[in-house]
Amino acid sequence: FLITRHSTLYLAKNRRVVMPSWTEHEEIKELQKSYSRNKVRTTKYTFLSFIPKNLFEQLHRFANLYFIFLAALNFVPIVNAFQPEISIIPIVFVMSITAVKDLWEDQRRRKSDQKVNNRLCDVYDRKQKRYVERRWAEVCVGDLVRLCCNEIIPADMVLLHSSDPNGVCHIETANLDGETNLKQRQVVRDLPQGSEFVPENYSSHIECENPNNDLRRFRGFMEHPGKVRVGLHSENLLLRSCTVRNTETVIGIVVYAGHETKAMQNNSGPRYKRSKLERRLNMDVLWCVILLLLMCLIAAVGHGFWLSGLQNPIYMIPDDTHPALAAFYMFWTMIIVLQVLIPISLYVSIEIVKLGQIYFIQNDLDLYNPVLDTGVQCRALNITEDLGQIQFLFSDKTGTLTENRMLFRRCTVAGTEYPHHENAISLEQYEDQGCGDADHSLTLRSRTSRKSLSCKSLSCNRSSVSLNTLTAESDTHSVHDTLRRHTPGAFSGTMECAVVPDPQLQAKLNTLSSAMRSPPRQQAAEISHILDFFLALTVCNTVVVSSPTQPRHVMPVVRTPLRSLEEMKAMFQKLSLPRFPSSLSQNTDTPTSLTKKLFTRGRSASYFPNNSPQTPIMTLQSPTTPSGTPSYTPSTPVTPALSSGAWSEDVDDIQKAKVNSADESESDDEDEAEELLYEAESPDEAALVQAAKAYGCTLLGRSPEQVLVVVPGTGPLSIPLLHVLPFHSARKRMSVVVRHPLTGEVVVYTKGADNVIMELAEAAEDGFSREVMERTQRNLDQYAREGLRTLCVAKKVLEEQEYEAWLKRHEYAETSIENREELLLESAERLETNLTLLGATGIVDRLQEEVPETIEALQEAGIKVWVLTGDKQETAINIAFACKLLRPTDHILMANCDSKETCEARLHELQHEIRQVTKEGVSEDDSSDCVLVIDGRTLDYTLQKELQGSFLELTCCCRSVICCRSTPLQKSQVVRLVRDKLKVMTLAIGDGANDVSMIQMADVGIGISGQEGMQAVMSSDFAISRFKFLRKLILVHGHWCYTRLANMILYFFYKNVMYVNLLFWYQFFCGFSGSTMTNSWVLIFFNLLFTSVPPIIYGVLDKDVSGETLLDLPDLYKSGQNSQAYLPSTFWMNILDAFYQSLVCFFIPYFAYTGSDIGVFSFGSPINGSALLIILLHQLIESRTVTWIHTAILLFSALFYYAFVLLFSLTCVTCNSPTNPLGIETKMMSDPLYYLVCGLTTVLALLPRILCRTFCNTICPSDLVRAQKMERLSAQDYSTSLRQWKENKAAQRLSSRHVPQNLSVNADMPHLTDCIAEAGAVLS
């Protein structure tokens, strides 16, 4: 390879070049040495760097810097307040605890790293000409690594070889993203796939993008020695930490190692956010700093004036220091003395309290799901209190409000609707029998335990499946028989497989397998569409097929009575012949042409489903060359045309073949009775494949090159799979390009959102008849009104020249590195045009249990619930009625606009309508009865800067908003707009990858571990398994966490200000000299040890109202929304109360001991004792729950204080130089006056708070106080009071609600009035 040094440097900056590690190209070898090795280190520290690095990290906290500064300041002799050694105790204590915690966490990471780095894998050694074992840490970029089944992948590797003959393997990504579905990976195209891979023969080189954290993207190409480039994509990449499944051996070349792998790039650890309460706390800390500076300034000025007024006092050492300079020094001394005003222990206490709150949340049995064996996962450790202040909730619909267990309900094909009444009855009977829970459990087990056993319990040897296993199905479609014989796979629960065919549709398909029956000629086009419809459902997906004893990826070796594909084609032609008039005089078409007619492009045939006697227009032409011969010729000749006379003989041959097949099936049944398992990445795919299977179109196997299916009337057919254009949120569809096994035509099958497919079908020049299009659209609207998820299916037949032209540009897009996604998207859109509509499906996605009750409770709590979904408006409205987001009396305001100007006018029109309602004498609260329904296109306009204000003004007047046809980007934009512009607390909840951006944008993101993998959970702050758990998580735990933490923070401020003020008042009697009436040990430990544990217990265990009452009365949640527990006024009231209590605590002992001969420390003894009792009893007054734990902690704190001061007084002689506290406490406690002073001080200090609280709770009690009183009633009285409470609240809402008769509802979509009228017929 001619790669110059200049180009090497360019590539090093822009992309990565990878060649085998033994390459002789010096520039490439040096370049590969610069890449990261595979050794990983997730630890922060080393033995030498721990102390300096940890100190550096802790010094980023302002509070730590503040106290270190004060400790250092106390070492300056001229400003020190007490012993310098004592001043460093608080900061050393706090930082030591943090350092020990960090060291413990780092040691855990170190052990994990060592375990990972010491794992072994097989790496090819060119010197030894064989694979040798190496540690993961020794693997480098360019190494060829060999892995076996169930081994973990050590680095990101491009797949070069697989023991599977089709060049595929499967990986399990559960360690990476939590998804249990197996992902299929394939060998790079054009690489030789023999029984053995010879590393010496590999001489290609890879150019790919630089390391990044996108798990679903890999761009690059492999260039072979012949300068042939092959595009590389994510299907060729084996990701580190994933596990190889169902493949004996795979070989890959390492392209990213160590910290450059995508797994390590995504290893960001727990999520950290700043809560709203924490932001408020930081502001109040600044107020405390200002208060501290003010008190120090007063002391400094007072000290200066005091010195100026002295005239050579005999008790002072002569000093030449000017009073102003002395005042300056005193300012800094007072900073040291009053430092406790800033609560150093508060930050550590908050972390401890939040850990305790998380512990109780995660261990709440009411939030535990026994099916998944999981509870709540708290992934963000510092925003628990935000759960108690949510004002807006943004929810996805599918999988969040609904089960995301898709059940095929009905379909429409070629304009004819097939209601599947028996299927609907079987679904209702199944749920009435109470099988839903068991089925759900079975489904989930199939996605976890069954997947883990699929390879571990089986050998990875290839196996075959007999024909009867693949095709045998009972002719009777009893749902109970289907349930009994079902074996589940991913998204293949009992009900997913129990599809009862529609008799009319089944009868039409039976004509394909009945040799002696022929449909009327006018039905030929319809049958063609029906067959294409089910063939599209079968092949247009990424479903992986397996059986209980067969690996998922193996293409079955079918034992068929047909000896060759030619006979299969011939049989199909024989079965096709009687569908048309048998007389050759009436129809001169050959069987070959008839076969092609049956599979010809749908847009060339028009079918009218109105059963009119008119002969349908049929323009049936096959792609031909100018000479008239078919442009595609099968590799083997087609069976010659059959005369009518030969028909009976052929029928006999077919019947004999069927008998042989049945005999072989019976013998196979004795050996192995298996059933196919479908592993789907989405429940939609599984439901559609199971529906097709119920009609005889069975998916048997899949490989990168072909799909094996059974079509009614034939044996298994191998369909060449040319391309898969996966689903994309921008296209809202997926397609597969196949070569038809019988006609040889290149066919594109597409399925996707109905609005997108209908637009693409309308663009066809010779598309379906307008009548069929209209019938299909009416059926789609009816499906949506019933709450069904709709999906359209279409096809397109490509000319060979057209396909070759598209393929050339598509291959260029695949091999591009820059702008590859955009080029592939453009390529897919270029192909998916002029589609022929085949039909549409309606799939049931039922609501999760207790969703209506949960949404109703959240709305009663004052939370505005918005639903952001990609579904149709009719479907979203129906689901909204079902989950009580919408009520029959609500006014639905529709916004569907085609331009920005129309959108602006529509927004003003809706605002005017709401104002008109208000002018009619209705209170402002009536506007909450309006619900806005807006589509994705209009949402795009409203998100533009010019219309944001009007949109938000309108939504603030609505009780709820439903955004339909919204994209993932729009979801996140809506959340950000509401959060930033309205300054409200937002919560987003979803279950899929399309909800990740919305979840990350909200203040609180909640992921549901549902059917769509774990992307939402991995990106969330909290993870739950069912939507109903949101009710208790927010209304109970959210309320508790907020009120507990808010009250604890206020209590910390109170006790620190109260105690510091005692020292401040003393300065007025000591000449503002910075002296204290307490020894320095008690001064330091008072807030650090003696009074710090009770508020922690208070913050973890206190309950103002029980959980049952909070669930019964959602209105109580509004106190957290309004931040009533922590308002600015509440903060300043606590500060004023602290000032009052400090005055009482200081001056009562002062007046009691006036004129006595007690010393300074003796005077401080009753002050400290009184302060301790006041602070502890103050918390007792504020506590709503007093348990034995609270009592024990309070008694322990008091006893700990007195034990310490007594021991200190008995043993310490020189502990507080230059003073001597020996015997002071024992002498003071032996005086009865000490206890009288402490008791009187405590009562007078707490009396105003007790009286004020009693007065407020009696005269104007809050809802929380009323709820507390209700809880003290008997069970019967409680029920009566609860009923009266709800009746009063309902009466208040009813009095403020007036439903006007002249409001224009559904202005843009009049046909939606049917949806409102049918609001009672909602999903069960």
Automatic annotation (TrEMBL):
Lineage of producing organism: Eukaryota, Metazoa, Chordata, Craniata, Vertebrata
P-type ATPase C-terminal domain residues: 1017-1261
Reaction(s) catalysed (UniProt annotation): a beta-D-glucosyl-(1<->1')-N-acylsphing-4-enine(out) + ATP + H2O = a beta-D-glucosyl-(1<->1')-N-acylsphing-4-enine(in) + ADP + phosphate + H(+); ATP + H2O + phospholipidSide 1 = ADP + phosphate + phospholipidSide 2
Stretch list, region Disordered: 604-649
UniProt cross-references to SUPFAM superfamilies, sorted A to Z: Calcium ATPase, transduction domain A, Calcium ATPase, transmembrane domain M, HAD-like, Metal cation-transporting ATPase, ATP-binding domain N
Organism: Cyprinus carpio carpio
A Gene Ontology BP annotation from the UniProt entry: phospholipid translocation
Pfam families membership: Cation_ATPase, PhoLip_ATPase_C, PhoLip_ATPase_N
GO MF: ATP binding; ATP hydrolysis activity; ATPase-coupled intramembrane lipid transporter activity; magnesium ion binding
Domain named P-type ATPase N-terminal: residues: 30-88
Residues engaged in binding ATP: 396-398, 685, 727, 751, 789, 869-871, 965, 971, 994-995
Active site: 396
Protein's recorded name: Phospholipid-transporting ATPase
GO cellular component annotations of the record: endoplasmic reticulum membrane; plasma membrane
Polar residues biased stretches: 607-621
Compositionally biased region (Low complexity): 622-640
Enzyme class, first EC level, given as a word: translocase
Annotated positions binding Mg(2+): 396, 398, 991, 995
PROSITE patterns listed in its UniProt record: ATPASE_E1_E2
UniProt-listed Enzyme Commission number(s): 7.6.2.1
Cofactor(s), names only, from the UniProt record: Mg(2+)
Keyword annotations of the record: ATP-binding, Endoplasmic reticulum, Magnesium, Membrane, Metal-binding, Nucleotide-binding, Translocase, Transmembrane, Transmembrane helix
Family stated for the protein in its record: Belongs to the cation transport ATPase (P-type) (TC 3.A.3) family. Type IV subfamily.
Listed transmembrane segments: 62-80, 86-104, 281-306, 326-348, 1058-1074, 1081-1101, 1131-1153, 1160-1181, 1187-1213, 1233-1251
Subcellular compartments: Endomembrane system; Endoplasmic reticulum membrane; Membrane
Membrane topology recorded in Swiss-Prot or TrEMBL: Multi-pass membrane protein
